[in-house]
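idk why but the lab printer keeps eating my pages so im just putting this in chat instead. protein + flavin-adenine dinucleotide:
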Amino acid sequence: MGKLTGFIDIKREKPQEIHAGERISHWEEYLMPTGEPALKDQAARCMDCGTPFCQMGSDLGRSTSGCPLYNLIPEWNELVYQGKWHEAYLRLIKTNNFPEFTARACPAPCEGSCTAGVVSEPVAIKSIERAIIDKAFEEGWATPRKPLKRTGLKAAVIGSGPAGLAAADELNQAGYDVTVLERDDRFGGLLMYGIPNMKIEKKVVERRIRLLEQEGIQFKGNVNVGVDVTMEELRKIYDAVILCTGAGKHRELDVEGRGLSGIYPAMTYLTGSTKHLLNEESGEPAITAKDKHVIVIGGGDTGADCVATALRQGCKSIVQFGKHGELPKERGADNPWPEPPDVYTLDYAYAEAKETFGSDPRQYQINTTEFLGDQEGHVRELGTVALELESGENGKKQYRENESKKQNWDADLVLIAIGFEGAEDDVFENIGVEASFNQIKADNKTYQTNLDGVFAAGDARRGQSLIVWAIQEGRKAAESVDRYLREKHSKKKVDVG
Ligand SMILES: Cc1cc2nc3c(=O)[nH]c(=O)nc-3n(C[C@H](O)[C@H](O)[C@H](O)COP(=O)(O)OP(=O)(O)OC[C@H]3O[C@@H](n4cnc5c(N)ncnc54)[C@H](O)[C@@H]3O)c2cc1C
Ligand code: SF4
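predcted complex ->
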């Protein structure tokens, strides 16, 4: 335990952010690293409570509680407090393949279930995780680890998002020859094209890919599995295949006027923006918010990333619609600890919009009913109706449109961010695995699909989720592949020491 009364004596410090007004002039990360002395203080707040809910990692109530990677949080808190950074790093990578991603973009369910949070504020776990991994890269501790022996067996990982990368890393370290096949031109999945640069700089993703390459993993880009190479062909070459193809089927908004130009799925917009940035193209990206009235439909994190991107492109105004009501300032009775607190926060994008235009861009309990265009067929306006929460049959609360509260909004660019429906149709049509509610059907424990030697992990299997869950799934699927191949090839006596 750090300091006996640390959580009483020392106040929690939030990670420092670059000022909202300043950071919208560039695309660099908005979070700043916390200095070493301050971090030791933060680590001292860990009370080593004995039952570390922070590392339990399970679905509780409506969302995730504790770290899904079972990160050894109290242990590395103590090591950081003692100044034993290298040991803290070794403890961290026991459970987390890529702390540099989670420490930047994880919503930190660990903090929501931290015991210190019951009586005071939670330990700043995510900041400590970030400091450990940043230091490891600075000090040169994160160097290529090449497996000492190879099994002679081959595995293919389809998709290079966090699930695919974690599976590839684990299998490579276990001695398999691993090839990652990726449809896109760059590797990283949504870490590369999806999550914007302000949350995870792309050089951070590229640094990890380089490290994995140096460790022996082969990366092949621009390969659309099911089109450029069939599953049958892959199964002949590789002893096992893991599908980590994500949950990229976006939900459509089927209302009048959807065919007008100027209306795009959020992912088309975000991907185009990142490609424009990385390719260092001159001028504006093909879809730009510059000098436009922008409306983002959908109240989630993808929508927030659209808001932050549009602000950096110089939009004229920005509004984000959500169907649900504003969250309370404090936990409700139906949202007890150790569930993550479902409370109002002014996330990075909203703080930036408030700084730029003077108000939070979110509009709550609102439904889009139609798009209206000009003579050229470009969207110029959008119609909405307010939603009221009322008791339906059996007393169940439900939203009802209030026809007396209609409104029209200026809109030159509309971004649809109302969620994802599961794995893309191609996966089922071209690859031939069975589906379960739009996700790849794969056993909860073995991650095995209906095809022998073919496994699935990450969003493709569990639906749109979080980086931390994707890493966990990749690790577990790799463990299962290892077991499968050891059993299948037991006569060969696979032994990697
Ligand atoms: C805009 C946005 C912001 C987000 N922000 C956060 C955040 O801040 N924090 C957080 O924890 N989570 C966030 N998420 C969720 C998180 O990114 C995902 O849960 C995670 O990336 C899923 O990992 P994955 O490896 O399963 O799939 P993905 O990251 O989706 O990767 C799948 C990969 O498979 C490739 N692929 C698909 N089909 C084929 C094929 N046939 N052949 C070859 N390759 C193929 C795709 O091109 C892609 O690269 C965000 C998601 C979005 C959309
Ligand atoms: S990965 Fe996420 S949940 Fe786990 S310790 Fe890090 S911030 Fe917390």
